[in-house]
# Entry
Amino acid sequence: MEPLVVVDMGREALMLTLMLSGPMLGVGLGLGLMVGVFQAVTQIHEATLTFIPKFLGISLVLLFLMPWMMLKLMEYTFGLFDMIGSVGLR
# Structure
């Protein structure tokens, strides 16, 4: 297997990881920022106040995006299997 193929496979895996985790990380960041501002304004410093909105927001994003995420993972996996099959025949 050529080094360029391995580098390309690693790049695709990294891009897929970033694409799949990006929406959840973005929602967690946004909700954390909003809760932080709310806590600073109201001077309520409760530890569970930061955890629960993030958990619910990330869970909802995961629930809504799960079909798309599974489709992307299956496409990547099928592409890897096709590549393995073509490398094995050479």
Remarks:
- Helices lie at 3-42, 47-89.
- The chain is about 90% helix and 0% strand.
